[in-house]
Amino acid sequence: MKANDGQANLILLDSAPQPEWNFAALMEAETGEKWNIWHIDSHFSDSAWKKKAKFFLFPLKVLRHRKEFGTILSYQQFYGLFFAFYSAIFHLKKHCHLIVTTFIYRPKQGWKGKLYAWFMRKAVNSPALDKIVCFSSSEPAYYQSIFGTDKFTYVPLGLGDLNRGGRIPQGEERFILAAGKSNRDYDFLVDALKDTPYQVRILSDAYNHPNPGSNIRIYHDVFGEKYYQMLSECCCVIVPLADARISAGQLVFLQAMMFGKPIITTESDTVRDYIESGKNGLIIPKQRDALRDAVRRILGKLFCGKHGAANWVNLAEAGRKEMLKKDIQPRPAYLKWAYIGMMTIAFWNGGLGLPWFTKYVLQVGVLGMALLFMLVTGDFRRLKAVGQFAVMFGLPFVMMAALSMLYWALDFQQLNYMSRGCSTILYHVISLSAMCSAVYLFGRRSIDYTLYGMCGANVCIVLGSIKENGIGAFVTGLIAFAKSGGIDTNAAIKALEVHDLTFAFGLMLLFALCCERGKKRLIYAGLSGLFFFLGLKRIALIGLVGVFLMGEFIRRRKPKAQSILIILISIGAIVICFGYVYLIQSGLFNEIVHALEIDTMGRDRLYAAFQEVYDFSPGFRGYGIGYVTRYISIMTEAGVGVFGTHNFGGMHNDIVTMYIELGFWGFAFWIWYSWNGRIVWCQKEFGMQTALLLLYETIYGFITYATDNTVFYCYINTVFMLLPIAMAIGEQEQGEEKGKHERKEPETSKERRVVAS
After folding, report:
1. 425 and 400 belong to one structural domain
2. Angle between helices 654-672 and 559-586 (to 10 degrees)
3. Which of 19, 40, 225, 728 could form a disulfide with 686 if both were Cys (CB 3.0 to 4.6 A apart)?
4. Cα(113)–Cα(116) distance, rounded to whole angstroms?
């Protein structure tokens, strides 16, 4: 969160901050900016109508001073929501950023419910409101389905003061504590534990019960140090939730863990980001007997000797040590070497005389290795972010499969043809799964290990060429190759022209030069550059030059200008791709290259042979994935025209190929999603650097698509998907590690944490 040109920022609270509340100081240290605090003591209002009146009036005061602040962070959601509501109905010009935290929405019945829903929709969708922070990962999707906006984002809740500590109370009085008021079902708690041997204390200024029982006491005025004192003295903490879809209780969870207290809470998806049942707490169904059993499980033996107390301590310490730290399980060294070995064989499977599908079998092995590790360790730390990328990269494959099946059905295609098209898509889904698995296992180091596998494979290819042609022929050819810039070569060096792998090395070289630093940059750029040069793919070299020129231009721009450039580049790319298809389909491309006497190595004749197959029109629907390859194969076997003189293998133009196979609108979606959809998503979720890396990859990829068949090559696509996933997660974890050392959390896209005490 950045203020505007030296302006201070503002935090809105519903009560005076306690002396130990250091959130503002942490924000100032993190952002380097001033953060003011405005509050109103709504907790101690004499009547309900006065408290509600402050929800209406206090935001008006803030609204009058909105030009004085760069960012307003509303800890009390209704202060921010009324601010946004007033801005919307009065059509006020936006002057500051507004972020609302601790958001809770529960639909109400009757005319009041309709009015409340109208107000919430108006406030949430107001242009004045930028982000709404939820404290559980399941809530953004839930609220998005209600309000139809992507303003909701998940930010794990954290604690600023972790140095407090709790011990098993040594006094005679032992009690269960329940605290908080949002989304609580204290009637359920009272009903379950009324007139039991357990002493219960409920701390809530919003709850009353006419007859809670002799063992249950309700407090309305326990805050700050008094609350911490009772928390330190209790035996365990119970958080009964009213609505399982709505997040609540997380702060109480973390505070209980801070004091080493075991936790019982009712079933909800919103609590599983903080509690693993049976490990650092108990998650139970909201049933009377289930709650009583959970209490007996935790406390039953606590009054009967050391054995029960030990169980109590173990559960409490798990919450304190494991939940608050959330360390990633260490990966055994053999996993690394197993992965490098599997990748080496996968990238070199042809040289070993193995079947072509061996690489996919090994990729399935990587997936299996990751799943087994996850099941054994229970480590899900990277799973969410990796899953997001899996969906992002997997969406085009889903689109291709759906459209292809539709086209095949309309054309009554044979089953073997359909299965071949589906397998093409399946292979890339396997590659995506393998790379997601690699990043889950190794984080950013997965890039290093994959590069080691690629280099190992290419070294084996070099050794194979030397063995077949002799060391003398290899050295002579290498010298001639280097002197001529790749023009003069011999059989020993031509053996190194490993088509797909060379394109993949181009991506690794791109990453090393654009994203790595220090010695690692030099080493990885040197290795990638060497094997890339030996691979002799001129179109890939053109792609790299295009990336570096574009990258140099973009890097010199400010962040806002970079975002605009991404949009402009995507628009330009869409226009260029459609224009390119039109030039080839109309025959203008061939006229131009003939006029300029450009040697297309037979591509002009191949393009001309396809002109009758498709047309440039919004009504062109396509034929499905695999059509172009099948058409070339049939025509080649029949010896028809240009196909009878040369075995092309593919159209050597994946842009036109995708147009023919996906149709006009399927092609339009593919182009838009490649150049805009996934890049903008990456920027929003994981920051500009990851988005720029994906943009550079896309530029490189599409340049190769223009004259080659790389869109479904295994190796280039494997590395293409790996790099942004590993980079994003690497930066995420680097920020978390930095925050761990500084006792502060990073303030970047998905990595920031709200720190509260």
Report:
1. yes
2. 140
3. 728
4. 5
* 107: CATH: 3.40.50.2000
- 38: Cα separation from own chain's centroid: 34
Window from 99-108, 180-189, 723-732 with minimum mean pLDDT: 99-108
The pair of three-digit structure tokens given for residue 221, joined into one six-digit string: 């005025």
Q: Per residue in 103-155, pLDDT tens?
A: 888 888 888 889 999 999 999 999 999 999 888 888 888 899 899 998 998 88
Q: What is the DSSP letter of 475?
A: H
Structure tokens at 365: 């092995």
Q: Is 429 helix (H, G, I), strand (E, B) or coil?
A: helix
Q: Are residues 641 and 727 in the same domain?
A: yes
Q: Return the closest-CA partner of residue 736 out of 728, 745, 748, 727.
A: 745
For residue 561, what are the CA distances in angstroms to 94, 96, 552, 556, 716?
A: 20, 20, 14, 10, 30
Instruction: Round to whole Å and give the CA distance between 466 and 475.
Output: 9
Dihedral (CA of 415, 417, 423, 425) sign: negative
Q: Based on the number of CB atoms within 10 Å of its own CB, is 210 exposed (0-12), middle (13-18) or buried (19 or more)?
A: exposed
Q: Has residue 741 been placed in a domain?
A: no
Kindly state whether residues 193 and 132 are assigned to the same domain. Answer: no
DSSP 111-176: HHHHHHHHHHHHHHT-TT--EEEESSTTHHHHHHHHH--S-EEE--EEES----------SS---E
Helix H or strand E encompassing 286: none
Distances (CA, A) of 50 to 42, 53, 81: 8, 5, 18
Distance separating alpha carbons of residues 685 and 564, to the nearest angstrom = 17
pLDDT for 329 equals: 59
Rounded to a whole number, what is the distance in angstroms from the first to the last CA of the chain?
20
Considering its fold, how many domains does the chain have in total? Answer: 3
Asked whether the predicted pLDDT for residue 744 surpasses 50, the reply is: no
Residues 669 and 521 in one domain: yes
Tokens of 708: 């080659």
Provide the domain limits for residue 228.
176-325
Query: Does residue 365 belong to any structural domain of this protein?
Result: yes
C-alpha 386/C-alpha 427 separation (Å) is 19
Q: In this structure, what token pair is assigned to residue 579?
A: 């224009």
In the prediction, which pLDDT does 51 show? 66
CB atoms within 10 A of CB 152: 20
> Which of helix, strand or coil describes residue 212?
coil
* Predicted confidence (pLDDT) at residue 755 exceeds the cutoff of 70: no
Kindly give the pairing relationship between strand 157-159 and strand 754-756: parallel
Reported as a pLDDT band with limits 50, 70 and 90, residue 432 is: very high
Q: Is the pTM of this model over 0.85?
A: no
In angstroms, the CA 239 to CA 253 distance is 8
pLDDT in tens, 253-296: 888 888 878 889 998 877 887 887 777 788 899 999 889 888 88
